[in-house]
Amino acid sequence: MTQAMGVSGRLAYQVETTFKITPATPALKLAYFLSESLGEKINLVTSQVIRSNRNPTKPVRGNRDASGALKTELAPSLGTLLKAALGSNTTTGAGSPYTHTMKIGSLPSLTFEKGFTDLGQYLLFNGCKVNRMSLSVKPEGFQEIDLEFMGANEAQALPYDGQTGNFTVGQVVTGGTSTATGTIIADSDAGTEGFLTLINVSGTFQNNEAITDPITGAAVVNGTLGATPLDSSVTDPGHSPWDGFAVSTLQEGGSDIAVVTAVDLSLENDLDGDSYVVGGGGVRQSLSDGKAKVSGTLTALFDSMTLYNKAIKYTESSLKIVYKHGTGAGTAGNEYLEILVPELYFSKETPAIEGPKGVLFKGPFEAFYDNGADASAMKIVLMNAEATI
Known about the structure:
Mean pLDDT: 95
Radius of gyration: 25 Å
Number of helices: 2
Strand order of the largest sheet: 11-14-13-12-15-16
Oligomer: single chain
Strand content: over 45%
Helix content: under 10%
Distance between the termini: 40 Å
Number of strands: 24
Largest sheet: 6 strands, antiparallel, barrel
Low-confidence stretches: none
Shape: globular
């Protein structure tokens, strides 16, 4: 029996038009990643009823917790995921290069497809939103970015053809020969063919068997549950990550600064994952955005009191980081990325003498929006050859 290998794993994604509904027209984009942990946990709830002996009673199923993280390298191909973290994007440009300006706004949701290609098996994760994004800016090597997601459910796709009646989301589909069943989360209907997104599957659907739901849904299975990718031609955006040498501009307080050794930056969206409803089958019915929090730590050589005095005196500052490939003009091979935190305060943390070597200033900071022209506690500008992110 073949063991699934991480090197053969595939992750692809697409922005959803409607929360937790698999897009009717799959147009997935390939994700390059270092590691991922997208999954679903269903806990068991044990009764404490007393029944005259010490043996435990049979547990029942709890709610579905779909969540996980994606670790990768900062690259021009991450525009869609950066937009998913901030929420708002405006694209300008009639042709390459295109300028994508992202600010804090309402978060979109994504459908992820996780493929174990050596096993020929694919899992879907619907309604995924970015709960936290963190970036490590360092002088050498790849710039690692982590994205933590919260979602609605894990599911699998059942392809069909020969459709004679429309399926209804929320109903149970049943196989005419196998009597297998599954709850319909979404129907990606392309006319007489398409696929159903199913959860709570019992039994094994058989290829070429008739399937129906209790209302009008009727078609014929065209394959095996979870064995066919949603998109047979996933878009490959390529992967040309920036490294530490690609940082062309690093400004603090509007001025270039040359003593920074690292910047750790995070954006938290405070998603409300406690949105389970009675009769909802343990699936999150919504995933409301919370108030954003932008924070981090700037670490620098302690060569003067300048940065420390800003923390002592509660002086407003800002942070700007620019990455460039080539000229930074935004054309292929010359991509540009600007990360701006326009308003922030450093919290006071006295530099520590930790040994005989050089002393570092570590400045934790928190961003905000008060009167900044961008009206956003974080702004990201990406210039590349991609028309839509």
